[in-house]
Amino acid sequence: MFKTTKVGLVDGLVDGLAESQEQIIKLIAENPKVSKVEMAMKIGISSTAIDKNIAVLKKKGVIERVGSDRSRYWKILK
Length: 78
What we know:
By secondary structure, this protein is mainly α.
């Protein structure tokens, strides 16, 4: 489905995560600069739900936000 080298990494990460969290990680793998609003639209959940899922992923050490306000992007850590 995905054509990046991170795909194998992402596939291994999604085990044990909620479906929406899996989808968030896949969207980040496709586009590290994806916004929360874009994620909500593509996944079909509210921006509040995106915030809650991102908080869980950050707490688990799966993702982090990197960069300044203008150049921010998501980084997959594991």
